[in-house]
Design a protein that fits this description.
Strand order of the largest sheet: 10-11-9-12-13-14
CATH superfamily of the largest domain: P-loop containing nucleotide triphosphate hydrolases
Number of helices: 10
Structural class: alpha/beta
Strand content: 15-25%
Order of helices and strands: EEHEEEEEHEEHEEEHEHEHEEHHHEEH
Domain OCT: 354-438
CATH class of the largest domain: Alpha Beta
Distance between the termini: 138 Å
InterPro entries: G_OBG, GTP-bd, GTP-bd_Obg/CgtA, GTP-bd_prot_GTP1/OBG_C_sf, GTP1-OBG_CS, GTP1_OBG_dom, GTP1_OBG_dom_sf, OBG_GTPase
Radius of gyration: 40 Å
GO molecular function: GTP binding; GTPase activity; magnesium ion binding
Enzyme class: hydrolase
CATH topology of the largest domain: Rossmann fold
Domain OBG-type G: 160-336
Largest sheet: 6 strands, mixed
Shape: elongated
Oligomer: single chain
């Protein structure tokens, strides 16, 4: 039965945004009083929260699939859809969150830290929000965008001040049980400890945590034994305590050779960039089980050799509790010194402000194809706009074309060498494929009114002053022309009559 899990893959799916609504307000004596379609609700987020009360990832091992709620659809009368229900997933303090490719997204080392692992989709705008002086009655609304869907890897790295390392059955579990309230399983066979144990130690005014990891053996860096798998729990520790068994009955083993093997395995373990290697951290060597007479003699024999190598050596017995008080106060001094140095070296948190639009909003990538180049448009905005477009609505397609043109997509396609009729794809993968024309048009131009307007909502038939003045001048001009024609006819008649009298 699994009781401790420190690595798990979560399959997350955030909520989808709700679609906007297309609606026209209807009142008495005014059946078409303007658009009143509401916006769709945003999809729910999936948030990871560092909780000190959680010590394992066991619950996510049994149920790794987590889904947030979808946003509600917009409704008429300017009613917006309900937001999707977000979910919060508590994780142990010290959990490292990685993406599918193994890159670190966040290190949750402080209690209460929150990280949005899967953001919910954006709700679509209703036609009321899309209305403008030039688009008085939009006949379309925006669709909701899908929420983030994918896998994240949770890896627990225990946050402890001191780590106990050593061979199996060296007495590490007995030591943590003797100096703290932790109650790990203790037995007289190797690899009794199958998962890290944590304990809290009070030494004077200093309180610190101590971790016991499964035992290391020679070849652990090559995958033998259990210890190397759990050495990531030692990465955050301030000090290391090498627990050496002075009463072992195994042939070919002694405290000095055991220490050399453990140091070799610690040296082979790669720590993350920026952290101190395990072998360079403050270290204490503990000679355990001196309650056995032969073990005490062996401890007194090897102690000078260990001190000559620069180690601070303490002799203890977890059975009689001899030397435990001196050990705890020695560790408290190391921890307190490290905490003081950390506070003094700490720099104030920097707030990074990235102005909106500082980064390029899209890019055009040219890809070779069987029938010519393919021009792929990548960027958050174009991809989101495509998700928001109802391609069954010609007016919505025209609105998408206008947005892309204002963003500068056409100019960038020209620079990339695109020609009329070229294949353009928006987004990764299959995306949305269309044949590009420099002037994007839609069937909306076939409407009797300009795009975004409705002649039924514009009942104002009064002529403007300019129209009345122009019509007046046209009328006066027509009268002047008519008078001129009559006058020309009279002159012609008189001339004809005069010619007749002369004859």
């Amino acid at each position: 039965m699994v009781t401790f899990v420190d690595r798990v893959t979560l399959h997350l799916r955030a909520g989808k945004g709700g679609n906007g609504c297309v609606s026209v307000r209807r009142e008495k004596f005014k059946p078409l009083a303007g658009p009143d379609g509401g916006n769709g609700g945003n999809g729910g987020d999936i948030v990871l929260v560092a909780d000190p009360q959680v010590t394992t990832l066991l619950s996510y091992h049994h149920s790794p699939h987590r889904n947030a709620g979808n946003g509600g659809f917009g409704m008429g009368d300017n009613r917006s859809g309900a937001a999707g229900e977000p979910i919060e997933l508590p994780v142990p303090v010290g959990t490292v969150v990685k993406d599918g490719s193994g890159d670190v997204l966040v290190d949750m080392i402080r209690p209460g830290m929150r990280f949005v692992a899967a953001p919910g989709g954006q709700g679509g705008l209703g036609n009321a929000a899309l209305a403008s002086p030039k688009r008085k009655a939009p006949g379309f609304a925006l669709l909701g965008t899908p929420g983030w869907e994918g896998d994240v890897l949770l890896e627990l790295k225990t946050v402890a001040d001191v780590a106990l390392v050593g061979y199996p059955s060296a007495g590490k579990s007995s030591l943590i049980a003797a100096v703290s309230a932790a109650r790990p399983k203790i037995a007289d066979y190797p690899f009794t400890t199958l998962h890290p144990n944590l304990g809290v130690v009070q030494a004077g005014e200093v309180r610190f945590t101590i971790a016991d990891v499964p035992g290391l053996i020679e070849g652990a860096s090559e995958g033998k034994g259990l210890g190397l798998e759990f050495l990531r729990h030692v990465e955050r520790c301030t000090a290391l305590v090498h627990v050496l068994d002075c009463a072992t009955l195994e042939p070919g083993r002694d405290p000095l050779s055991d220490l050399d093997v453990i140091l070799g395995e610690l040296e082979a373990y790669p720590v993350p960039e920026g952290q101190i290697p395990l072998t360079e951290r403050p270290t204490l060597v503990v000679l355990n089980k001196i309650d056995v007479p032969e073990a005490r003699d062996l401890a007194e024999l090897v102690r000078p050799d260990l001190e000559a190598r620069g180690f601070r050596v303490l002799e203890i017995s977890t059975v009689s509790h001899e030397g435990l008080r001196e050990l705890t106060f020695a560790l408290a001094g190391i921890v307190q010194t490290h905490r003081t140095a950390t506070v003094e070296a700490a720099e104030p948190e920097r707030i990074v402000i990235r102005p909106q639009g500082a980064d390029r909003e899209f890019q055009v990538r040219v890809e070779g194809g069987t029938y010519g180049n393919i021009y792929r448009i990548l960027g958050d905005k174009p991809v989101r706009w495509v998700h928001q477009t109802d391609f069954q609505n010609d007016e919505a397609v025209g609105f998408l074309a206008d947005r892309l043109e204002r963003l500068g997509v056409e100019d960038e396609l020209f620079r990339a060498g695109a020609t009329p009729g070229a294949t353009v794809v928006i987004g990764e993968g299959d995306g949305i494929v269309f044949d590009w024309q420099p002037a994007l048009t839609s069937a909306a131009e076939l409407m009797t009114a300009p795009r975004g307007t409705d002649a039924r909502l514009d009942q104002n038939t009064r002529r403007t002053t300019a129209e009345r003045r122009e019509r007046y001048h046209d009328r006066m001009g027509a009268k002047a022309e008519a008078r001129a024609e009559l006058e020309a006819e009279r002159i012609a008649e008189r001339s004809a009559a005069g010619d007749g009298d002369e004859e």
